[in-house]
Amino acid sequence: MGGRSRGWAAGPLPLPLLLAGLLQLGAAAQVGRWTEVEISLPPGDNITVFVKRGTLTWPTNLCNIIFQRRRLPSLIIKRGEKAVFTFECSDPEKHYVLEVQKNIDCMSGPCPFGEVQLLPSRLPALNRTFIWNVKASPKVGLELQFSSPRLQQIRPGETCPDLVTYSISSSVEKTAVNIGTFCSNGTVSRIKMQGGVKLALYLPWNENRNFSGFNITNRSSIRRLCIIESVFEGEGSATLMSANYPDGFPEDELMSWQFVIPPHLRASVSFLNYTLSNCEKKEERVEYFIPGSLTNPEVFQLGDKQPGNMAGNFNLSLQGCDQDFQNPGALRLLFQVLVQYPQSEGNKVYTVNLSNERAMSLSIEPRPLKTSRRFVPACLICEGPTRCSSNLTLTSGNKYEISFLCDDLTRLWIIAEKSISCTDIGYCSRKSYQLLVPSDIIQLPVELRDYTWKLFVPKDKISLQMSPAQKLQQHTHDKNCETTFSYMLSSAVQGQNLYFGSFCPGGSIEKIQVKTNISVVLRTFSPGFFNESFRQGMNVTFIPSFKDEGIFTVTPDSKAKVYLRTPNWDRGLPPLTSVSWNISVPHDQVAHLTFSKERMGVSCETGRAFMIIQEQKAKAEEIVSRDDEPLPKPRDLHHNFWVNISNCSPMQGKQLDLQFCVSLTPRKMDMMVIILAAVGGGSTLLFALGLLICYAKKSKNKKDSKEPAVGIYNGNINTQIPGKAGKFQKGRKENDSHVYAVIDDTMVYGHLLNGSNGSSTSPEVDVYRPFQGPMGDRPPSPPPICSRISTKKLHPEDPRPFLLSESDGEPYTFSHPKTVALKGNEDNGIPLLEKKEPEEVME
Ligand SMILES: *[C@@H]1O[C@H](CO)[C@@H](O)[C@H](O)[C@H]1NC(C)=O
Ligand SMILES: *[C@@H]1O[C@H](CO)[C@@H](O)[C@H](O)[C@H]1NC(C)=O
Ligand SMILES: *[C@@H]1O[C@H](CO)[C@@H](O)[C@H](O)[C@H]1NC(C)=O
Ligand SMILES: *[C@@H]1O[C@H](CO)[C@@H](O)[C@H](O)[C@H]1NC(C)=O
Ligand SMILES: *[C@@H]1O[C@H](CO)[C@@H](O)[C@H](O)[C@H]1NC(C)=O
Ligand SMILES: *[C@@H]1O[C@H](CO)[C@@H](O)[C@H](O)[C@H]1NC(C)=O
Ligand SMILES: *[C@@H]1O[C@H](CO)[C@@H](O)[C@H](O)[C@H]1NC(C)=O
Ligand SMILES: *[C@@H]1O[C@H](CO)[C@@H](O)[C@H](O)[C@H]1NC(C)=O
Ligand SMILES: *[C@@H]1O[C@H](CO)[C@@H](O)[C@H](O)[C@H]1NC(C)=O
Ligand SMILES: *[C@@H]1O[C@H](CO)[C@@H](O)[C@H](O)[C@H]1NC(C)=O
Ligand SMILES: *[C@@H]1O[C@H](CO)[C@@H](O)[C@H](O)[C@H]1NC(C)=O
Ligand SMILES: *[C@@H]1O[C@H](CO)[C@@H](O)[C@H](O)[C@H]1NC(C)=O
C-alpha cells in the first residue's frame, strides 16, 4: 500500500504502456461469470479511469478484461468515454485495481470548490485509488477540509486499520513534497497548502463508501509550505511529522501546525524524533504562539524541552535553513501533542530551594511500570509554567518552581543522591554532618523512593560513625521493620560487595561505625513518609580509622528482644571480614544471648572463622566458637559485652550468616541489694558499696596481667576481636573510647586457640596464608605498618614489632600464647603496637 500511495507522487505514471498489449479475442463465449461493468465519464470533468493489474503478481493469464469482445490486460477510460466490460474471472479484485485521476485546473478557469465527490459512482469492487490533482497559482492557498472523524497522521510504513488511506502532497518548484499519510479517525481537520495539491484516497475493494470526506476551498496565500490544523474535542494525543518525513524537510521552508484545544484541557508538546540539517545560513528552530505568553513567538531549538501544560489554542512552526550545498543533512521532526485535563496538582506550585545544598541531585521520574495499550495520559513535571517533561532533574545550588501535570502522581517517584567526602583529614576529622532529607523534598506530592548519601573518606585514615536521631532496628525475619522508611547501608567501595543491612527507627542500635566509604540509602516503603519524616536523621562523624568492617553499638531497651545479624545476610559475610557488636547491659539487668542456630555453618577454605563473646569487665572469660565448633548455648551476661564475628575465606556455598537475639531481664541480685538496703538501712548499703569499690580497684590493678598475649589470625585483614576485658575500665558513658581502644587492640587472644571455652590446652598451630582469592577492585595496598604488625604475625618470642621483614606471602602462624608480651602497656589501655591516636577519638 505504501507503494501505491507514493507511486503517483513520485512521478508520471507509465500510462501509455498499459494499452500496448491488446489481445484479439476469438469468441465472446469466454465471458466470465462476473457481471458487466459500465463506466461512463462526463465530458465536463477531466477524469481518467485506469483499470490495471494490481501489484500482486498472479500469473497474468488467469484473468483479463473483456471489452468489446477482446481480452485486454488493462483499460483506460478517458473523459467523455463510456466503457462496458467484464472480467474473465470471478475474483477480479485479486487481479485488478482501479485508479481514478481527476485533474482540476484552477489556473485556466474557475475552480470547482466545495465538497469533493467520489466520481464516477458505481465502480466495480476493486481496490481503488482516487487521485485529485489540483493545479493552482503559487499565490493561491488551497485548503482541504476533512469532515469528522477527522484524519490521523501515520508514520511511514504504518497502515490504517480500515486500510482507507489519504496521501497528501504538494510541490515546491515542481518537486513533489510529501505532506503526510493519514487514516480516518484523528484530529487533523484542515490542511492548507499553496500552489497545488495532490490528494490520493485509497479504498480497499470491500469498502463501499461513496463520499470522499473532504472539501476543497481557496484561501489567500499562506506564505509557507503548509499548515496542518488539529482539533481536539477531548483528551487524546496526535503524532505529527515534518513534510517528507522520514526524509529531509525541504530546504529553507516553513511549516506550521495549529491546535484547537478545548478550554478546560491542557496541551503538551514533546519531540519524539528529530535530526538537524547542516545550515549554512539561518537557524533551524521551532516557534510557538502560546496563549498567555508575553514573549510570543517563543523560539525553541529542537533539542530544547518543549512547552507543556498550555491552556488554549496554540500553534507551532518549523523553520528550516539554507543548507550546506555539499553536505545538506536532513531536518526532520516527529512530535506528539498530548491533550489532557489539568490535574488537581496542576495549579499548585512547589518551591524546591536547593541553594544551600551541595553535591546533590534529585530526579523526579516515572516509576517503571508495565505498559498497556490503552491511552495513558502523560504524567509531566513542569519547571516553571510551561517547561514540562516526563522526567526532571534538579541539582544543588538552584531554586526551582515545580508543578505537576499528571493524573496520578503515584506514577512518579523521586530519586536523590548526595555525596559527602572528607578530603582534608585535618578539616573533617571529628566533624559531624547531618543526613536529612530536606523538607522541600518531603513536601512534594511525589513519593521519595531513595535518598542516597554517598560518604567518602580517605582510605585507612578516616572511618565513619553514624548516630541516628532515633535508635535503629535491624530488619530481620524475626522482627520486620514496620516503619515507612528504612536506611540501607552498603559499602561504597568499588568492588566490595558488602551490604550491612536495612535499619529502621525504633530499635536499639545507637551507633553504627563503618570502616570506610559507604552509601546510606533512605528508602521509603509507603506514602506515609511525609508523616513519619520527623523520625529521620542521622549524624555522620568522621573518626579515625579502625579495622573492623563495622561496629554496632547496641543499647537494648528492657522490653523488647533485639535481633541482630551479620552483614550480607543470605549471601554470607564477605571473606576475611570482621564485624563487632558492642552491647550494653544496664546494671540492673541481665542480657540473655541466643544464637539462631547451633553452628556457624561456614566451611572455610583458608583460615578460621570465629565468633567471640566477651564481657567488658576485668578477667572476663572469652567465649569463643570456631567455625568447626558449635556456637555457645543461650547464656546470660551481666555486663556490657562484645560479640565479634570474623570470617575465614569460605568455600563456595557454605557462607557465614549469623543471627542472634539479645533480651534483657531484671537482675535478681540487684533486687537483693535493694532489699538489703531497704531492710538494713543506709549504713548497710554504704558498706556494700565500699566493698564494691574496693573490689573494682583491686581488679583494676590486676587487670591484663593474666591475659595471654598471642595469636593472630586472618592477618592482613580486618579480623580482630574487639578486645580485652581489661581495656574497659571506663564507665559506660565513655564507651567510645572503648571502641577505639578495642579496635586498635593488638591481638591477644591466643587462648582462643585452645578451643572454645578453653577446654583444650594443647598448643594448636594453624597455618594461614593471606587471602589470595579474587580481590575484585579492592586495591591490594598493604595496611599501614603499625596495623600490619598488629594484624599479622605476632610471634610470642617477638613481643615487639620487629617483624616487618616478612613478605606478604609468608604463612602466618598461630602458636601457643605467652603472657609476657604485652606487659606494661595495660595501664593506659593503649594497644602495644598501636599509635596513640585512636584514644583521641572521643567526642
Ligand atoms: C486534463 O488534465 C491533463 C493533465 O493535467 C491536462 O494535460 C489536460 O490539459 C486537461 N484537460 C482539460 C480539458 O483540462
Ligand atoms: C487489494 O488490496 C488488498 C489489501 O489492501 C491487497 O491485499 C490486494 O493484493 C489488493 N489487490 C490487488 C489486485 O492489488
Ligand atoms: C463541504 O462543504 C459543504 C458545503 O459547503 C458542507 O456541507 C460540508 O459539510 C463540507 N464537508 C466537509 C468535509 O467539510
Ligand atoms: C475510530 O475511533 C473510535 C473510537 O476510538 C472507534 O470506535 C472506531 O472504530 C474508529 N474508527 C476507525 C475507522 O478506525
Ligand atoms: C452514499 O450512500 C448513501 C447510502 O448508501 C446515500 O444515502 C448517499 O446519498 C450516497 N451519497 C452519495 C454522494 O452518493
Ligand atoms: C476563491 O476563489 C474565488 C473564485 O475563484 C475568488 O472569488 C475568491 O476571492 C477566492 N478566495 C480567496 C480567499 O482567495
Ligand atoms: C527515530 O529515528 C530513528 C532513525 O530514523 C529511528 O531508528 C527511531 O526508531 C526513531 N524513533 C522513534 C521514536 O520514532
Ligand atoms: C499562530 O497564532 C498566532 C496568534 O494567534 C497568529 O497570529 C498566527 O498567525 C498563527 N500562526 C499560524 C501559522 O497559525
Ligand atoms: C533558599 O534557601 C536559602 C537558605 O535557606 C536562603 O538563604 C535563600 O534565600 C533561599 N533562596 C530563595 C530564592 O528563596
Ligand atoms: C531521566 O532523564 C535522565 C537525563 O535526561 C536520563 O538519563 C534518565 O534515563 C531519564 N529517566 C527516565 C526514567 O526517563
Ligand atoms: C573512598 O573514596 C575515596 C574518594 O573517592 C577514595 O579516595 C578512597 O580510596 C575510597 N576508599 C576505599 C577503601 O576505596
Ligand atoms: C546531630 O547533630 C546535630 C547538630 O550537630 C545535633 O543537634 C543533634 O543532637 C545530633 N543528633 C544526634 C542523634 O547525634
Automatic annotation (TrEMBL):
InterPro entries: CDCP1, CDCP1_CUB_3rd_6th, CUB_CDCP1_1st, CUB_CDCP1_2nd_5th, CUB_CDCP1_4th. The chain crosses the membrane at residues 671-696. Residues 772-843 are annotated as: Disordered. Residues 38-106 form the CDCP1 first CUB domain. This is CUB domain containing protein 1. The gene is CDCP1. It comes from Sarcophilus harrisii (Tasmanian devil). Pfam families: CDCP1_CUB_6 (PF23665), CUB_CDCP1_1 (PF23667), CUB_CDCP1_2 (PF23668), CUB_CDCP1_4th (PF25142). Residues 1-28 form the signal peptide. The keyword Protein transport does not apply. Residues 833-843 have a biased composition (Basic and acidic residues). Residues 225-327, 548-660 form the CDCP1 third and sixth CUB domain. Residues 350-437 form the CDCP1 fourth CUB domain. Residues 114-218, 448-523 form the CDCP1 second and fifth CUB domain. PANTHER family: CUB DOMAIN-CONTAINING PROTEIN 1. The keyword Membrane applies. Keywords: Membrane, Signal, Transmembrane, Transmembrane helix.
